[in-house]
Amino acid sequence: MNGALPEDFAATARDYVAKLQAEPAKIASRKASQNALNAYGPHLPNYWAVLRILRRVT
C-alpha cells in the first residue's frame, strides 16, 4: 500500500475516456460518478476496503 497506481492504470483510464467520448451518454452526474467508480475502482489498490469504510462513514 505505497500509494502507487497499477502500471496499466493509465491505459485503463485512456480507454475509458475514449469510450465515453465515442459514445457520450446523457445521464445524471450521480450516475456518471457511479459509472466512473465501476470503471476505475477494480483497477485501484484497496478499492473495496476504502469503499467499505466510506459506506460506514456516510
TrEMBL record:
Its EC number is 2.2.1.1. Keywords: Transferase. GO terms for molecular function: transketolase activity. This is Transketolase. It comes from Klebsiella pneumoniae. The gene is tktB_5.
